[in-house]
Amino acid sequence: MVTFNLMITAEVKCGNCGEVTEKESYVMLGELVPIPKSRGQANLVQKCKFCGREGTITMIPKSGRYLTGDDCEAGKFVRLMSFDCRGLEPVDYSFGGDQWKIITTAGTVFENVDLSDGDWADYDEKKKMPTSVGNLQARFE
Ligand SMILES: [Zn+2]
To answer: Does residue 130 or residue 8 have the better pLDDT?
Structure first.
């Protein structure tokens, strides 16, 4: 089972002109910033460097679920989280940050796992077996 601390790292595309940020943006569930000229808040408020249009991304808590071993065996994509995107569109997800939590079928918990390479391996003491995650893929829909 793979779960995360509710942070995403992604490139962001402007909904107005289509410009994609060169730098990846971070969106964290616990981090809200005020939206200028509004009473609202969002997890990310970003102005397009090209056209100047401002957009926001807001995470919708509890809108997803964990990725399980069965999902992996079935080759299924699982929704980890939903986002309310206004004028910004996340395009290229990366598994960055030491934020992942992996629970093995034996119940061993590995915290703060870095999956930025898409691969991870360790030893499950409870099960007395090596355990690993590999070939991780993600997409925005
Ligand atoms: Zn733009």
So the answer is: 130
